[in-house]
Amino acid sequence: MAPSHVLRCCQRVLAWIPVAFITMVVCWSYYAYVVELCVFIYLTVFHFSFFMFVWSYWKTIFTRPSSPTKEFSLSKVDKEQYERAERPETQQEILKRAARELPIYTRTGSGGIRYCDRCQVIKPDRCHHCSACDMCVLKMDHHCPWVNNCVGFSNYKFFILFLAYALVYCLFIATTVLQYFIKFWTVSLPDTHAKFHVLFLFFVAAMFFISILSLFSYHLWLVGKNRSTIEAFRAPVFSNGPDKNGFSLGFRKNVTQVFGDQGRLWLLPFFTRCDDVIHTFSESQNQLLNNHSNENHLEPNGVKTGMSLADYSRV
Ligand SMILES: [Zn+2]
Ligand SMILES: [Zn+2]
User: Fold this and answer.
1) How close are the terminal C-alpha atoms of the chain, in Å?
2) Which ligand is nearest to the CA of 148?
3) Helix axes 76-84, 88-98, angle to 10 degrees
4) In 10 A of CB 237, how many CB atoms?
5) pLDDT on residue 192
6) pLDDT band at 1 (very low <50, low <70, confident <90, very high)
7) Is 67 part of a structural domain of the chain?
8) Which of 222, 260, 265, 263 is nearest to 244 (CA)?
9) Measuring CA to CA, which residue among 262, 160, 277 is closest to residue 212?
10) Coil, strand or helix: which one is 144?
11) Residues with CB under 5 A from ligand 2 (ion)
């Protein structure tokens, strides 16, 4: 077995350590709350929040990231020409020709077509290559070590729900354990090993609640702005330059683009998207860009000129 292959296998195994850590903490918290503390009247709500938290965590971990469809791969002829071309300008000409029919509106910092040499695909808008997953991921937000998966187009809703239910779980534990925690300090609790669990339940729940709250608030803000974490740090570049609000369609549409347009499914970790948004090719191919009346605004190569996606919403 090649050393690089062994190293890769080791990296894959080690990448599960944060997930194993979270799983152990959650299992311990379940044991401490249900077995050691065991306050019957709290158990229904506890189990509900526990189930929703575990469900959304599971879906975030095991939902495979979406990669670009085959339409974004170069044809055999183009690929050979691209590999033979020595000058970057020639390579860009090949990419521009291949991207003519594709719904691509973002560019590299220097105005070129975004291309992944590793996956050999033209990158759709909002798509980035993840070195940890070794693949191009649609609407990549970030690679999260706590779920050992890329957070992106296919699981962003699950990730938000995972944070939300983690908050509910921690908050419920912290508030219901507080009275026993106080009794611990006032020494009125029977001196059993349950004391130890009660003490740590409160500390761990409060600590996780505080740290998750800031992350959750930040992602809610990103959802409202229709930005990924990557785009928040580096504005996407369109043909008319960088535009950090380039994908924003207004608050309501931004929210439905992640959670879907059926409110009753918002809180469930099912994949739901806005019905009137078609995602055949890329994240940016939304209803506004599919409107054929807008075709006049596109250059022959399919690149819109001087307008951001937000501008389309005002057309
Ligand atoms: Zn790639
Ligand atoms: Zn990744």
Assistant:
1) 59
2) 2
3) 170
4) 19
5) 73
6) low
7) no
8) 222
9) 160
10) strand
11) 130, 132-133, 143, 150
216 within some domain = yes
Compute the residue count for the chain. 315
Report the DSSP pairing between strands 237-238 and 142-144: unpaired
d(CA 276, CA 258): 13
Q: Domain for residue 126, yes or no?
A: no
Which listed ligand is nearest to 15 at the C-alpha?
2
- Is the Cβ–Cβ distance between 124 and 104 less than 8 Å? yes
Q: Higher confidence at residue 220 or residue 312?
A: 220
Domain extent, residue 31, equals 17-62+152-315
Q: Which of 282 and 97 is assigned the larger pLDDT?
A: 97
Distance 127 CA to ligand 1 centre (A): 9
142: enclosing H helix or E strand: strand 142-144
Q: In this structure, which amino acid lies at residue 308?
A: S
Specify burial of residue 48 (Cβ count, 10 A radius: 0-12, 13-18, 19+): middle
Number of domains in the chain: 1
Supply the mean pLDDT for the chain: 85
In a domain, 183, yes or no: yes
Read off the pLDDT of residues 48-97 as tens digits, 9 standing for 90 and up: 999 999 999 999 999 999 999 999 999 899 999 999 988 888 999 999 99
What's the CA-to-centroid distance between 57 and ligand 2, angstroms?
16
Contacts for 167 with CB less than 8 Å, ≥ 6 apart: 209, 212, 213, 216
List active site positions. 144
Tell me the CA–centroid distance for residue 150 and ligand 2, in Å. 4
- pLDDT of 159-199, one tens digit each? 999 999 999 999 999 999 998 888 877 776 666 777 888 88
Residue labelled with tokens 């469930």: 268
Tell how far the Cα of 64 is from the centroid of ligand 2, in angstroms.
Answer: 10
